Amino acid sequence: MEPQAVAFAVAGVIFGLVLLVRGFGGYRSAAAIADTAPSRIASAAVGEILVSGVVEPAELTLISPLQSAPCVFYRARIDQSDGETASGGYHEERSVGFRVRDETGDLRVFPRDARFDVPNRFDEHSGAFGDEPSGLQLRAGPAFAQSLDRDAQIAALLTVHPAGGGMPSGSGGPAAWSAGLLSGMSGLPVRGHSRRYCEARIEPGEVVTILGQAMPFDQLPDPASADVAGSGDPLGGDPEVAADLAAARASGILESDPAEAWGNAAIPGFGIGRPVREPELDEAANEPALAGPGDAARYERTFEIAPDALILAAGPDSPLVISFGAPAEAAGRHQREFLIGLLGAIVAIASAMALAIMAGGGLDR
């Protein structure tokens, strides 16, 4: 048997099976969306529900790495290629809690363990001589930002930003860019090399369809952990931190009351100098002005969730699927995944048959 032919056949089987598994996932998601009537948020009940509405930021937003856009979810990837082989240089996915609103009301969404079905909106290549694509605006600051109110979002959209430049080079190297965003990659592409930049995201004001478990907020086991998710979460992937948190909960030393755990930081509006109630301060500290009734109501709504308020999250037997677009658009995208999965099944079967023929000596006769 030709080793190269065997390698191609094995790769075909693996690739086909991967597509098939993804296809069945798409089929299940498409069937769940198609078979579940969307609920109006105001009349949502405890249990698995499907809702569709506009995204509103909660306490925080994210800043996407490749286009510096405010969002509640992003998936960014940079691959480098020399024209023959490609190597993954950087991949990051993050999400933060947000609200979804329809014409009847809103629900808070906690994204831990969510599956995001969001297509790329930025997919460009650098030039062979290292010139970066237009539209690339690399994030220069932290990944998190305080959520903006509607007026501030409009002002941000109307602000003209400078065009994104190339990645830094020189003695600092890529690890110096955005606190090590591209740590581990080489410098700018040399002649004959290029980079592919891909970014998917969900921005405030965009429509999403969500299939998940509606439950009272006080039944969510760990709201702080459930509010931030993704490969970029510094705590979520650390087994030692997870073990320490579990031990602290078991021993009862982990505070369940935010006011006890965080002190003044638990007061809505304290971080921006307009707390809704008097903080406990040192006698020498400047006392901040209290927020007015309108601001106080807005801060309370943003930062505090009533124990019996319904929220959306992943349940023990109910996944959380967050899809970009209205239900019909989301279901159609999942159906395309299923068709690609069927194609993968054909590839896997054909490759397996080729392996069987080679193993039987059919190609040597």
**Helical content band:** 25-40%
Q: Give the domain tally.
A: 1
**Helix tally?**
7
Classify the beta-strand content into a percent band: 15-25%
Radius of gyration: 24 Å
Structure, explained:
- This protein is of the alpha+beta class and 365 residues long.
- It has one domain.
- 29% of the residues lie in helices and 24% in strands.
- It contains seven helices and 15 strands.
- The strands form three sheets. A five-stranded mixed barrel has the order 1-6-7-14-12. A five-stranded antiparallel sheet has the order 9-11-4-5-13. A three-stranded antiparallel sheet has the order 3-2-10, with no helix packed on it.
- A hairpin with a 6-residue loop joins strand 2 and strand 3.
- Helix 1 runs antiparallel to helix 7.
- The longest helix is centred in the first third of the chain and has 33 residues.
- It is globular and about 85 Å long.
- About 8% of the residues have low confidence.
Compact overview of the structure:
Helices cover 29% and strands 24% of the residues. The protein has seven helices and 15 strands.
Key terms:
single chain; 365 residues; alpha+beta; five-stranded antiparallel beta sheet
Chain-wise SSE layout:
Layout: H1 3-35, E1 47-57, E2 60-63, E3 70-71, E4 73-81, E5 86-96, E6 98-102, E7 105-109, E8 114-117, E9 122-125, E10 144-146, H2 150-157, E11 194-202, E12 207-216, H3 223-226, E13 228-230, H4 239-251, H5 258-262, H6 293-303, E14 310-313, E15 320-324, H7 327-359
Parallel strand pairs: 7-14, 8-15
Antiparallel strand pairs: 1-6, 1-12, 2-3, 2-10, 4-5, 4-11, 5-13, 6-7, 9-11, 12-14, 12-15
